[in-house]
Amino acid sequence: MPTVTEALQMMDYGPAPESASIAQDWLKDRSFGHFINGAFIKPGETFAVTNPATGGELAHVAQGSAEDVADAVKAARGAAKGWAKLSGGQRARHLYALARLMQKRERLFAVLESLDNGKPIRESRDIDVPLAVRHFYHHAGWAELLADEFPGMRPHGVCGQIIPWNFPLLMLAWKVAPALAAGNTVVLKPAEYTPLTALLFAELCIEAGLPKGVVNIVTGDGRTGAALVEAEVDKIAFTGSTEVGRLIRQATAGTGKALTLELGGKSPFIVFAEADLDAAVEGVVDAIWFNQGEVCCAGSRILVQEQVAETFTNRLKARMAKLRVGDPLDKSTDIGAVVHTTQLERIRGLVDQAVQQGAVLHQAPVPNGPGSFCAPMLLTDLGAANIANTEEIFGPVVTLMTFRTPGEAVELANNTRYGLAASLWTENLTTALDIASQVKAGVVWINGTNMFDANAPFGGMRESGFGREGAREGMLAYLTSDEATGKERKAPAPLSALPASASGDAVDRTRKLYIGGAQKRPDGGYSYAVDGAQIPLGGRKDIRNAVEAAHKASGWSRVTGHNRAQVLYFLAENLNARARDFAPKDEVAQAVERAFYWAAWADKYDGKVHSTTGPNVTLAIKEPFGVMGVICPEEAPLLGFVSTVLPAIAMGNRVVAVPSQANPVPALDLYQVLDTSDVPGGVVNIVTGPRAELTDTLAKHDDVAALWVFADAETCLSAERHSAGNLKPVWAESRARDWSGPAGQSRDFLRRAVQVKTVWVPYGA
């Protein structure tokens, strides 16, 4: 045994094992069936759940079939009405009970999680279980306040929830707690590799007296998840890979199911020269070697400023060599076992490809013995196009590149199709907040990483998915309102180049597309006929030109809300002054009022400072998407155009709008009002033509960040399906809306015109 002096010099730790007996006693001779309608059913076909650290079997669980999923959905549907009718206070009591029971069994949950997943007991004990408890307490509070804080909203009904294997219990809490608080019932499908803590949670549901059918848990592989997506549920919430997220987007297209997706990431970890380098090195440990790197928001791409790169890299290599890889139940272990040998093989395969493409691999010693262990790895001397920089590895592998200027750091950080998180390290707060505003990520940590809280919105941009979990934004994902209550929209009549009727004008009036602040002829040179006019027939290239013009108008997104409001007030004044020039006459006065209304909101739809459990100022900033597509409604051709386009630009977006196909004249005539109202060129672009084709083009366009579609059911379905390629959020509404009433100026327009960026700013010594 070393002396105290020798131990301090070695900085080594002896074994500190946590007993597995508490979990083994619970698991002893267990074969788990599904949890449906308040009880475990007898298992049919089963599969083994194994311990990734040893390869040994832990239990057998049922392989869910489509019939099992249907039974669970039926139970949830049967319980939905009664659960939703309970008062918020009554639902809150159940959530409080679940939180308390989980606290009382936190050691069992922690040990079981480490056995099942392979993560170090320190992490499951000190992070996963306390955070899961926090979510149930927090959402019990939301249940209590629901009627006051979300007036006019109701639960979706039955929610299908599919969670991953990296944080099995925590992901359950992230999804189940807000769903129940909002009054929904749940069918949860845990990951194939890690279902055990979900099944233990099912026992808590019984003990807490949760009504039968409110929570149902069906275990199985990807086939079970696919069956749940196809089932008669009202909402799907999925956390997992981007590839599976695309399949779910396609499968739910046109079904009317609400959808939230939290998908993959390739998050930048940016270290500036003035950063505390030792703190940043420890930040890397937390960013990528936490949970074996099996974290969707892991800081897997280090970008370090050139003048400190050598010093930082040397310190990082030294720290990496000291990390302990081994038994997850040893309290001294830093990195446990990768969840499954299949994942371990994938990690090694991607690293091999990265090395073949020129990367230099630095790796800590690889442990001997059984289990799917992976030593931490650092890849240097690689380019931005290297596979290790472009693909989510989901293992303890980090890349390192250098940058010279803050602008170059932003460019490298955003050089990814993902947008889940970012971590910034600098002692200069001005630099930190400036870069945070430019990085395309749903969550930005300053001088920290992988910080989570039930009252902090979490979610991504671009191919990292859409929707938020946590806080008020997470509750909104489980609530809906009945605003579009009209008849199902019908597709407009086919286009014809033949004139429908003569205009009667002595001098012909040529109408054009409106792109980049100027009238433009359609690229194809064709037109189509509406009553009394020939209208330019826009196509794919015209959409491309409009999107390019919108991107060039990016300054609009940086203009203050106050200044945007002044422009919209001016637009309302000019529209009012020219009211007699527009038709339909009954819509003009309402359109003017609507313009004033959205102008008023331009500087008032604020972000929030959320109260989180650590010493942070946690900002939830409402950012514009950037370039949006808007398929305006056929009904109310002027009022519908104003009611959809103006809230989008009031929030700082630039818009490519497709107006009514049958009567686009009012929208096209607005160009003169836009020109004389200080609306910068490219902020509003108007392309007329075949709505279905133009909708598909906007849905497929990678540089259109969000899409609103107020159209017939077939066009809505097509838009959602085609958006799966780039995973943009699509608001598709096939029922008519009363544009002259409150539904025409709903806050939903504001909420859907922004994406929330959560910025964690630390304070204190």
From TrEMBL:
Q: Which domain of life is it from?
A: Bacteria
The record's family statement is: Belongs to the aldehyde dehydrogenase family.
Any Pfam family from its record, for instance, is Aldedh
The reply to whether Chaperone figures as a keyword in the UniProt entry is no
Spell out the catalytic residues. E262
Aldehyde dehydrogenase domain residues are: 45-480, 533-733
Give TM segment ranges: none
PROSITE patterns named in the record: ALDEHYDE_DEHYDR_GLU
Write out the entry's keywords from A to Z.
Answer: Oxidoreductase
Q: Which GO terms describe its molecular function?
A: aldehyde dehydrogenase [NAD(P)+] activity
InterPro entries attached to this UniProt entry: Ald_DH/histidinol_DH, Ald_DH_C, Ald_DH_CS_GLU, Ald_DH_N, Aldehyde_DH, Aldehyde_DH_dom
- What is this protein called in UniProt? Aldehyde dehydrogenase
